[in-house]
TrEMBL record:
Originating species: Rhododendron simsii (Sims's rhododendron)
Pfam families, per the entry: At5g48480-like_C, At5g48480-like_N
UniProt-recorded name of the protein: VOC domain-containing protein
PROSITE patterns from the UniProt entry: VOC
Lineage: Eukaryota, Viridiplantae, Streptophyta, Embryophyta, Tracheophyta
Limits of the VOC domain: 20-146
Amino acid sequence: MTQEDVQNGSAAAKTVTFSAVKPQLFVEAPKANDAVLFYKAAFGAEEVSRAVHPKRKAEQEIPLVLVAELKLGSSSILVSDLVDDSVKTLGSGFAMCLETEDVKAAVAKAVSAGAVSEGELAEGEGEGLVGKLKDPYGFVWTVCSPTKKSVDVEA
């Protein structure tokens, strides 16, 4: 297929599907390993895989984490060391939302692991109990009860 075909839309007929969306959290180097340990302690994350930066020397005390994949519930997140300015942060804000049946216990566990609770637990509009946390790496997490199903709206 030529570049002209792509520009004229010929490539648009092919269907592309995605198997997952994995948010990637960048933390100040060399704190990704600490962040992985925090997410395991605070949220019960399970480490699925890890790649260490290939340019780090073996004798260096803490290898930089190129990327670690963590499983949180049925989702995955990626955690990496930020080694240069090539990654731009989201200017409008970004928060991760965790659903659980026991919001109070989840917030307490995260706080005991080093997160800071932001405000009191509150009843969210149609969401049940909601708590907000800021982790030691500056990311905001919302912990909430599972969303209650509402009546389907006809399209």
